[in-house]
């Protein structure tokens, strides 16, 4: 079971409002923070997301093929998460809509550092 996922940032102050907005829409907030790092989620709950400057002091880079997905409660929340991402410095990687079969509804976007993210719901009508 995954406890949390860490993504790199080169500017925590710029990136934090992006994740604050997504976390608020998902009904959570900051779980812990210290200089150079913030984590969002609920202790003892589902996996959280942490954002931090790399420990080795080198610039943060985007992993090719790496993506973190946020589970939404319904397609309307997927739409809101996508809109919040774009309004807070993110960029679109795929507008909200159905993908494939089986009711998979998703939107794709990147955070201010270029990390690829997704909001999705399974079994959407």
Write a structural description.
It holds the Pfam family Glyoxalase. This is VOC family protein. It comes from Novosphingobium pokkalii. The model has no long low-confidence stretch (mean pLDDT 93). Helices cover 22% and strands 34% of the residues. The chain has a single domain (4-54, 67-121), classed as Roll (2,3-Dihydroxybiphenyl 1,2-Dioxygenase, domain 1). The protein is of the alpha/beta class. It is globular. α1 (12-25) packs antiparallel against α2. The chain has a four-stranded mixed beta sheet with strand order 1-4-3-2, with helices on one face. A four-stranded mixed beta sheet has the order 5-8-7-6, covered by helices on one side.
List its traits.
four-stranded mixed beta sheet, alpha/beta, 2,3-Dihydroxybiphenyl 1,2-Dioxygenase, domain 1, 2 helices, VOC_core, 125 residues
Query: From the alpha-carbon coordinates, what is the Rg to the nearest angstrom?
Result: 14 Å
Identify the CATH class. Answer: Alpha Beta
Number of domains: 1
The pLDDT mean sits at: 93
Quick gist of this model?
Pfam families: Glyoxalase. The protein has 125 residues and is of the alpha/beta class. 22% of the residues lie in helices and 34% in strands.
Describe the secondary structure blueprint for this structure.
Blueprint: E1 4-8, H1 12-25, E2 30-34, E3 37-40, E4 48-52, E5 68-71, H2 75-87, E6 91-98, E7 105-110, E8 116-121
Parallel strand pairs: 1-4, 5-8
Antiparallel strand pairs: 2-3, 3-4, 6-7, 7-8
Helix pairs in contact: 1-2
């Amino acid at each position: 079971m995954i406890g949390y996922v860490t993504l790199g940032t080169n500017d925590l102050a710029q990136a934090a409002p992006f994740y604050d907005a997504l976390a608020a829409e998902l009904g959570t907030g900051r779980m812990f923070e210290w200089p150079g790092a913030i984590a969002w989620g609920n202790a003892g709950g589902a996996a959280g997301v942490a954002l931090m400057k790399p420990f080795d002091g080198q610039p943060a880079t985007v992993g090719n093929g790496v993506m973190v997905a946020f589970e939404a409660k319904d397609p309307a929340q997927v739409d809101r998460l996508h809109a919040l991402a774009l309004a807070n410095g993110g960029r679109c990687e795929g507008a909200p809509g159905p993908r494939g079969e089986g009711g998979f509804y998703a939107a794709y976007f990147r955070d201010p550092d270029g990390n690829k993210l997704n909001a999705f719901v399974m079994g959407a009508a």
